[in-house]
Amino acid sequence: MKKVYAKEEVCVGCKLCEVYCITSHSKYKDVLKAYKLDSTRPAPRIIIEEERPISFSLQCRHCDDAPCVKACITGAMQKDPETGVVTCDTDKCVGCWTCVLVCSFGAIVRDLNNKIASKCDLCAETGEPACVKNCPNEALVFTEGGI
Amino acid sequence: MDIVIIGNSAAMVGAVEAIRKHDKTSNITVISDEKYHVYSRPLISYYLADTVTEEKMAYRSKDFYQKNNVKTILGTKAVSVDENKKTVILENGDLVKYDKLLIATGGKPFIPPIDGLDKKNIQTFIKLDEAKKLKSSIKPNSKAVIVGGGLIGFKAAEGLHALGADVTIVELADRILSTILDNESASIVTKRLLKDGIKIKVGTTIDKIVGEDYVKEVHLKNGEVLPTDILIFAIGVTPNTDVVKGTSIKINRGILVDRNMKTNVDDVYAAGDVAEGFDMLLNSNRVVPIWPNAYIQGETAGLNMIGIENTTNGIFPMNSIGYKDTYIITAGIINPPDESYDVMVKADLDKNTYKKIVLKENNIVGFILINDVDRAGIYTGLIREKIDVTPFRNQLLKDDFGYINFPKDLRKSKMLGQEVR
Amino acid sequence: MSLNYLTPEFKVLRDYDRCINCKVCMRQCANEVHSYDEDLDKMIADDYKCVNCQRCVVMCPTHALTIIKHPQVFRENANWTYDAIRDIYRQAETGGVLLSAMGNDRPYPIYWDKMVINASQVTNPSIDPLREPMELKIFIGRKPDKIELDENLNVKTKMPPQLKLNFPIMFSAMSYGSISYNAHASLARAAKELGIYYNTGEGGLHKDFRKYGENTIVQVASGRFGVDREYLKTAAAVEIKIGQGAKPGIGGHLPGEKVSEDISETRMIPVGSDAISPAPHHDIYSIEDLSQLIYSLKEATDYKKPVGVKIAAVNNVAAIASGIARAGADYIAIDGFRGGTGAAPKRIRDNVGIPIEFAIASVDSRLRSEGIRHTISLVAAGSIRNSADIIKAIALGADAVYIGSAALIAIGCHMCQQCNTGKCNWGIATQDPNLVKRLNPEIGYKRLINLITAWGHEIQEMLGGMGINDIESLKGNRLMLRGIGMTQKELDILGILAAGE
Question: Which residues form the NADH-rubredoxin oxidoreductase C-terminal domain (chain B) (predicted)?
Answer without folding.
Answer: 317-387
